[in-house]
Amino acid sequence: MSEDPEERTLGMLCHLLALCGLVMPFGGNILGPLVLWLVKKEGMPFVDDQGKESLNFQISVTIYGVGAALLYITGIDIVLCGALGVFWLVMVIIATVAANKGERYRYPLTIRLLK
After folding, report:
1. Is the pTM here over 0.85, yes or no?
2. Neighbour tally for 36: CB within 10 Å
3. For residue range 32-60, what is the model confidence (pLDDT) as tens digits?
4. Which domain holds residue 43?
5. Distance (Å) of CA 63 to CA 26, 43, 56, 99, 101
6. What is the crossing angle of helices 28-40 and 45-74, to 10°?
């Protein structure tokens, strides 16, 4: 739990910047959190933690999205892409609210690439 308001705000932005993917597809969801994390990870443990968590989730969702798109192309499961998008949006909003409260949020179904 972070008590510093600036750290909480920046930790929240690590999650919220993933919404850049709605404006800039194909990497925007990763680029926003990555830039903030790289700039602020030194000296701000909460931002370091939440930045890594956000990046891990965004990379995981991108991997899942590629798999879902491959299934979509083959016609096996048309609903999967939409469900993944809704899941992504809801999880980003939940993580943003939790980080704003100073809580260290952990996304479900995340591949932990950055530790």
Report:
1. yes
2. 22
3. 899 999 999 998 999 999 999 999 999 99
4. 5-100
5. 11, 31, 11, 24, 29
6. 170
Cβ neighbours around 102 below 10 Å, total: 16
Residue found under tokens 């999967």: 80
E strands of the chain, at which residues? none
Closest CA to 58 of 92, 82, 35: 92
Contact 15, 100 (CB under 8 A): no
- Please report whether residue 113 resides in a domain: no
Confidence of residue 2 (pLDDT cuts 50, 70, 90): low
Number of compact structural domains in the chain: 1
- Of the chain, the percentage scoring pLDDT greater than 70 comes to 97
Task: Please state the separation of Cα 57 from the chain's center in Å.
Answer: 5
